[in-house]
Amino acid sequence: MNSVANLGPWARFKQSDFIYHFRRDKVAMVSFAVFVAFLIAAFFSPLLAPHNPYDLATIDILDSELPPSWLDMGDARFWLGTDVQGRDIFSTILYGSRVSLMIGLGAVALQLLIGIIVGLSAGYFGGRLDNLLMRFADVQLSFSTMMVAIIVSAVFQATLGAEFYGQYAVLMLVVIIGLAEWPQYARTIRATVLAEKKKEYVEAAQVMGFKSGRIMFRHILPNCLSPILVISTVQVANAIMSEAALSFLGLGMPVDQPSLGSLISMGFSYIFSGSWWITAFPGMYLVVLVLVINLLGDWLRDVFNPKLYKG
């Protein structure tokens, strides 16, 4: 026991039950490896992509709708073919996935911020404040996420104008998706707080005269990290799918700013004319990305709940 306590943080982490279960679960290991590969490819896309889809000087409209290089009429310069603007599909997928991941992670960060404040406040203080906040969350949950996102997105575009919205599309989508999904965090954190605030360490902190903010954020919140981590993995996937759906409906990223959703939307009208690769490859990339994130989320849920875990 003492030998374990004397180890450094990294050494203790490598010997933890979390890593032990991770090494025994091949699905989790493969999913994590694929997700890290996608993450690296997305955020290092300027270095890895053979073409820059934002550099108009390198784009030739005569190269539009070229099939993948291994098919007839394909060009060796474009491994996965080109879109209707002559942009390399492989490069636009890398750049587009970076945009989609930025929106997904940013939206989850906003959901987390709002959800933590609302959930902690509702669970800790209770009473009328709890009823007010939870009824507000219930009203929002009664509408589908996409309905809320579509309404807010349409209002933003009508109020600010399409040109202004296009310039700040990433920030707008982070706000739209973040505002549509925060009740998931709030309800989960509130349920955890209701269980935690009855424990002795909270009562001891109250007796010692600690302020409510300190008790909530420094004592109760760390014990809510397990459900927060599980929800976050699922919510990242949901946020990426929401961005793709909004972009497909024309309420997300503009066509000239590649994201996975805008790429799928742009190529959808050409899929029956023979240019199937414009939509197919971004769509497959999106499906695999969301799948590995959801698999990691399911594994985390099982690991943090010993009653469910059978690894």
UniProtKB/TrEMBL annotation:
TM regions (residue ranges): 27-48, 101-127, 139-158, 164-182, 220-241, 276-297
User: Which family is this sequence assigned to?
Assistant: Belongs to the binding-protein-dependent transport system permease family.
Which InterPro entries does the annotation name? BP-dependent_transpt_permease (IPR050366), MetI-like (IPR000515), MetI-like_sf (IPR035906), OppC_N (IPR025966)
Record lineage: Bacteria, Pseudomonadati, Pseudomonadota, Gammaproteobacteria, Aeromonadales
| Cell compartments where the protein resides | Cell membrane
Q: What is this protein called?
A: ABC transporter permease
ABC transmembrane type-1 domain mapped to chain residues? 97-297
Question: Which Gene Ontology cellular component terms are annotated?
Answer: plasma membrane
Superkingdom of the source?
Answer: Bacteria
- Secretion signal, residue range per the UniProt entry: none
List the membrane topology term(s): Multi-pass membrane protein
Q: Which UniProt keywords apply?
A: Cell membrane, Membrane, Transmembrane, Transmembrane helix, Transport
Pfam families listed in its UniProt record: BPD_transp_1, OppC_N
Keyword check for Chloroplast: no
Principal location class: membrane
Q: Does the keyword Lipid biosynthesis apply?
A: no
Organism, as annotated: Oceanisphaera profunda
Which CDD domains does this entry report, sorted A to Z?
Answer: TM_PBP2
Annotated GO biological process:
transmembrane transport
